[in-house]
Amino acid sequence: MVEFVVRVVGVIVAFLVAPLLVGQAEHKVMAHMQSRLGPMYAGAFHGWAQLVADGVKFVQKESVVPAAADRRVFEWAPIVAILPYLAAIAAIPLAPGIVGADLDSGLFFVLAVMSIGVLGSLMAGWGSGNKYSLLGGLRVAAQLMSYELPFVLSAASVAVAAGTLSLTGIAEAWNPWWLLWQLPGLVVFFIAGLAELQRPPFDMPVADSEVIFGPYTEYTGLRFAMFLLAEYAGIVVLAGLTSVLFLGGWSGPGPDSIGWIWSILKIAFVSLVVIWVRVSFPRLRADQLQKLAWQALVPVALLQLALTGIGVTVFL
Q1: Please, are residues 218 and 128 in contact by the beta-carbon 8 Å criterion?
Q2: Which residues of the chain have a pLDDT value below 50?
Q3: Which of 65, 150, 209, 278 has the most CB atoms in a 10 Å sphere around its CB?
Q4: What is the tens place of the pLDDT at every residue in 156-201?
Q5: Are 197 and 204 in contact (CB under 8 A)?
């Protein structure tokens, strides 16, 4: 019972702290990449408390429900958007024995709940009673259908190579030469993951210059903050999953007892790459987004899966 409580508390703390750290890093990293200061005053030292201040600001704002909205769908959408990432974080291991829930089908579970999180955006677009929100929600649906396939196929390639769906088992089976063997799958997985999270350059559903702010146009206050927190939590989940599947998880110099340090460093590195991509690449058009998925990522993911199957059959 004590162990269960410790695991639950650990997962909740990680869920509450890690997205805030990623958000703060995005503030400062983007500022430096764009040759500006970024937040500097909240908390005095380099604006470390800026996200805390933003949270207080959101709590103080009024949460308005539009008269034309489907109230129940509108109110539940932020919860549906954020809770799946809490479940996903629970299944991603940091080191042997340091995991909220070590599931035999952990990879399947995490991919499934990540897909559920996108439903929050669909509910927000439909429930807002706003044509621009609905348009953003439809863009979310089109983007999800396009990029879910390469996302799952590239992850399946690693599962085939490791011979297990357990995330712990995949991390234990990882070998440094996988960095070359599974490199195409890594690129496809990362790009598709960005699209699943609607992160730039795949942020068409929330393109403020086209559809105001997509599915979230009518949201204010704490409900809007939950959507932002869900985005940063999604980055943490994507980084953690990328680390386990393609970068070896806790593998690194030294004993397994310090493996959690390597996991955190790898998650931080992938999160920084996500931020760098946001700053470096312009938003894609709708036709470019679909072409990238169906004409590039899906064929590469299928080829990677086939080569992995051949490699496992012939060499392992």
Answers
A1: yes
A2: none
A3: 150
A4: 999 999 999 999 999 999 988 888 999 999 999 999 999 999 898 9
A5: no
Angstrom distances, CA of residue 174 to CA of 31, 82, 178, 209, 261: 36, 30, 7, 43, 17
Element spanning 124, H or E: helix 119-127
Q: Which residues are 95's β-sheet partners? A: 98
Which residue, among 65, 84, 72, 87, has the nearest Cα to 11 in the 3D structure? 87
Q: Which residues contact 105 (CB under 8 A, 6 or more apart)?
A: 165, 166
DSSP string across 45-108: GGGTTHHHHHHHHHHHS-----TTS-HHHHHHHHHHHHHHHHHHHHT--SBTTB-S---TTHHH
Omega of the bond leading into 150 within 30 degrees of 0 (cis): no
With b for 16 or more beta-carbon neighbours within 10 A and e for fewer, the 157-171 pattern comes to bbbbbbebbbbbbbb
> At 232, phi and psi to the nearest 5?
-70, -35
DSSP label of 296 = I
Q: Per the confidence metrics, is the pTM higher than 0.90?
A: yes
Gap between the Cα atoms of 138 and 215, Å rounded: 9
Helix axes 259-280, 183-196, angle to 10 degrees: 60
Tokens of 90: 């629970």
Residue 98 pairs in a beta bridge with 95
At a CB cut-off of 8 Å and minimum separation 6, what does 134 contact?
125, 126, 128
CB 127 within 8 Å of CB 77: yes
How far is it, in rounded angstroms, from Cα 64 to Cα 56?
17
